Amino acid sequence: MPVGCRYCSNRTLFIVAALVVALATPAAVPAADTPRQGGILLAVIGADPPSLDPHQESTFATMQLVAPLYSTLLQTDPYAYPKIIGDVASEWKISPDGLTYTFKIRPGIRFHDGAPLTATDVKATYDKIVTPPEAARSVRKNAYVAVTSVEAPDASTVVFKLKFPSASLLENLASPWNVIYPKKYLDKDPNYFKNNVMGSGPFKFKNYTRGATFEGERNPDYFVKDRPYLNGYKFFISPETSVRAAAIRSGRAYIEFRDLPNAEVDAIKKQLRDKVAVQQTPMTGQFGIAINNTVKPFTDPRVRKALTLGFDRYTGGKVLFTLTGLRDVGALLRPGTEWALPDAELVKLPGFGRDMERNRTEARKLLAEAGYPNGFKVVLKNRNVKLPYQDLAVFAIQEWRKIGVEADHRPLETAAWFADGRDTGSFELIIAPTVEASDDPDVFLRRYTTGDPENWGRFSSPAIDDLFARQSRALDHAERRKLVQQLQKVVLENVYYMPGLWWTRNVVHWTKVKNYVAPPNHYSNQKLQDVWLSED
Amino acid sequence: MATNLEVAHATASAELAPRLSVAAAVAKFARTKPLGAIGAVIILIMLVLAAFAEVLAPFDPYHGDYGLQFARPSAEHWFGTDEFGRDVLSRIMYGARIALFVGFTASLTGCTLGALLGVISAYWGGKVDLLLERLMDILLAFPQLILALAIASILGPAVQNVVIAISIPVIPRVARVIRSAAMSVKENVYVEAVQALGASRPRVILQHIIPNVAAPYIIMVTAQLGAAILAEAALSYLGLGAAEPTPSWGLMLSGSAPSYAEKAPWIALFPGIAISLGVFGFNLFGDSLRDALDPKLRGR
Amino acid sequence: MRIYVAKRLLLIIPTLLGAAALVFVIMRVIPGDVALLIFGGDAGGNIDPKQLAAMRHRLGLDQPLWMQFGTWLWGVVRFDFGTSLWTGRPVIEELLIRLPLSLELAIAATVVSVIIAIPFGMLAAIRQDTWVDYLVRIVSIGGLAIPSFWVGILCILMLVIFFGWGPPLEFTPPWVDPWANFQMMIWPIVTVGYRYSAVTTRMTRSTMLEVLREDYIRTAWAKGLRERAVVVRHALKNSMLPVITLVGTEFAFLIGGLVVTETVFTLNGVGRFVVDAVAHRDYPVVQALIFLIAFGFVVVNLLVDLTYAWFDPRIRYR
Which of the residues A330, B70, C95, C244 could staple to A335 if both were Cys, CB 3.0 to 4.6 A apart? Predict the structure, then answer.
């Protein structure tokens, strides 16, 4: 997938800051057989959603289930990530100073209760995201610090006003999480959508039984003509990986949208041969280890450095790839994208050198200098989720044993993980992934700034804060890249956080599932409006 | 009922029997209860594996040989290696240690506490009995797994917490059995006589009642041993048991092991066999012991 | 008899109250705050304490514990178990979705276990200490020794590997589509049934052994009746009482112990529902379910004891 260059061309237009008009149709619909109407898409998913409100959640379990029920202002092109196209917005303009974004809302869109979707609903939605009312939470409000106000001068126009130019606003407005809610319901209860659904997407909500199934049925009044092709979709919920894989093998389900481990994929391919297809995509996600910078011995940068030096990433990529798809060695932004640190610079950073014996010797030396010549004991808290959380932990523990650090692995169930682990800071080390819906540096790097809610390591560096603020406003592309790379180096040189490995995933589906292109994350392109089944 | 005393002494685990030499008792047990003898042999093997794991295990159970992920069983790795290249045989040997630890501590703790409560309940009677009985009813009616879940949440997933989670539900079951056994002893003429002679309560309990409930106690302990090992496996499967990379049998056959069922069946097969065989051994032994100790079934 | 029944019925109350109080305390002691969870979702982070307090208030969690417990009890008396903190639906409604599956599994598994246990238990008793006895005991003890989740996983894997077939993923009640129901439920039923048959087989065997030694059986033997007639007419009838008790008690335990089976076979039953509710600190759901499971347990036990008392009058005076 030509990730980098599409991104550039889009960006160049933007930087010229001329009038940008985009058509709302996907760029390149892959030529295929004539789509067939009908059929129910059967899918399996590994978890129940914590709630149905994507504004308040950040898990695939929420996204994949409800995405087909909603529309967003913009979206990433289903066939060409990360190109941005419209969804309910048909076109948009950006003022030359980059401070005013004007969107035209497509006429004739209706919510599933028959009410029209207008600019007021878009405004109400973004008000809830950018300035959430007291009773509701907005997970992504920090992504919109540049936004002063959202206005709806008439029924078909939405205007975003900015305090300062933002390099990532369009990406953020195309986020699949920002689904558009009808104002009427939000006014009644900002938390209404945690347990209810009212959208304008290609499918209508049918039924959800916790722990069992989630169903949607075709929306005949969908605003895109002749879509969706499917009569409906149905997710079966099973936390057991082997059960989900078996469901695909036996044809009880046609697709798993998140990821199946390579061992299962091989077995499925061996049995079903050309009846199944596997789309292996890199992920906009990385699994690493957050170090609590406020507790001993990790207040000492030498100790933090020793941890990352003692972790053999290159071997890890080989070992863990077969188990859980963790493969690529990289810094804080996805390798292969324009934002990534080039290899030549990467290998100079602690823990990224390829000579592992030298790394370990240095790690032991640093530990001795810090007063731990015989290593130390530490608790590594984790989620009790097998893939990839626990496998990464097992590998890390084995690696650290080699430099004398004995880590006690403590997997916690979700509630305890929040209350007695990650969120309250009551940990020494945790497995802390960074998985997002786009490669944008704003989205990925904010967590390294002082006081950010996702700064699990609780560190504070004026240099990082400054670099982050500057890159966020840098409309010049080359300059932004320079700042972004500099920021990554500051984090890695001080080992405030310890990146592990970048994730790849396997989307396995029967070949009768047509027109689904797996994007490099498990949040985007879940609307299913173009997906069709060649047979039942 | 006076035979109870005799029973406990004559046939209880043969080693205790004063009238037979140990060797002779073992020989008799093996002859009359061949299944029990097989069970005993299995238990013995487990004990040896657990005790001498450091010497017997060919590899470090925590060491992953990255060049050898998913290696088939071979002369070097008899049971093959797992997904991290760890030797499955060595992990099973060390796992025996955890299984036995969980089995013995959980069943001994649970049974001893249960027996104690049962004896107290039976001997004191009256309000104490009523109160304890209700308490036991509550524990019985409370689903075991919820208790285990709560304990794992409060104390974290670790082997010693698993022991607590497993032993608590054992208490009421044992308490009931021991209570009724103690009741019948208490009503015995000779206990009444001893009491009439002015023996103190603790002395009566210690000298007369405890020896008499020994047989059902031993039966309960052996019965719970296997059950405890299985419970540990089930808790591990649900993510409430020991944590990776601890070589626990239950852990070894849950997690991603099913995903490797085709690629490397030995990863889940051997630990599964180990658990089944271990529990099987304890159950066989316990079953035969019960046959031997139960006065009604003796001397057919 | 009437006094005995009344006494037993009265004793139910403290047991249920105790179980309810226990689950209440446990749920409040375990770390993890439902308000934090509801806010935290999967993203966590620094949540405004004011928001948290407001949420706790909304959920009624800021009241003193005894008041919360009182409110809850008063609800139970009126048969109102509250609403789930997560789905916002009445607990009873959520339960009714899942109860048929668990009940079917428990009842059918019990039936299967009895069907396996009684003939084999009898056989083992009649042929005590022969190879038949040993075989039956080995197989039944094996049922107790093999981890049921492992059997379950192997069973599903075998089906899919060798036949490319897997059971349906969604529960259909037997009265809607018996065939679909059968395809899904047969595997867990047999797995659980086999496991529970082990206990019952052993019990049948030992009670049979006892009865076979009774004088009247020897008399029957002596009269020269055919072996089968002796066994079936006399011994079996008289040895069934303890077996019935055991089956009843096992059934009562089974209701609360289906979690593992339901997880392995991805069945949306009561067991998994409780575990899910505990994980999400959904207090009303956990409290209601534990209360109802305890209630079921107590009632089944009561029925068993009453049956026993009915058959064996000596019990009443104990």
Answer: A330
The DSSP secondary structure of A148-180, one letter per residue, reads EEEEEEETTEEEEEESS--SSHHHHHT-TT-B-
Chain A positions in Cβ-Cβ contact with residue C41 (cut-off 8 Å) = 50-51, 56-59, 62, 137, 139
Task: Return the DSSP state at B197.
Answer: T
Searching chain C, which residue's CA lies closest to the CA of residue B233? C147
Measured between beta carbons, the chain C residues lying within 8 angstroms of A243 are 156, 264-266
Angstrom CA distances, B121 to A28, B199, C16, C20, stand at 80, 19, 21, 23
Contacts of B38 (CB under 8 A, 6+ apart): B281, B284
User: Rounded to whole angstroms, how far apart are CA atoms B39 and A368?
Assistant: 52
Quickly list H helices, A74-151: 119-130
Asked which of A444-448, B183-187, C273-277 is least confident by mean pLDDT, the reply is: B183-187
Asked whether the beta carbons of A103 and A92 are under 8 A apart, the reply is yes
Question: Cα separation of B246 and B201, whole Å?
Answer: 47
pLDDT tens figures, B210-239: 777 788 888 888 888 888 998 888 888 888
With an 8 Å Cβ cutoff, the interface of chain B facing chain A consists of 62-64, 66, 69-70, 83-85, 152-153, 156-158, 239, 243-245, 255-256, 258-263
Q: Are A528 and A202 in contact (CB under 8 A)?
A: yes
Cβ density class C86-124: b for 16+ within 10 Å, e for less:
bbeebbeebbebbbbbbebbbebbbebbbebbbebbbbb
Calpha distance A521→A536 (Å, rounded): 27
Among A12-21, A295-304, A448-457, whose mean pLDDT is lowest? A12-21
Do B236 and B248 meet the contact criterion of CB atoms below 8 Å apart?
yes
3-state helix, strand and coil shares in percent for chain B, rounded to the nearest 5 = 75, 0, 25
Peptide bond into B258 cis (omega under 30): no
Interval B19-28: pLDDT, tens:
557 777 777 7
For residues B51 and B46, give the distance between their C-alpha atoms in angstroms, rounded to a whole number. 8
- What are the tens digits of pLDDT across the range A118-133? 999 999 999 999 998 8
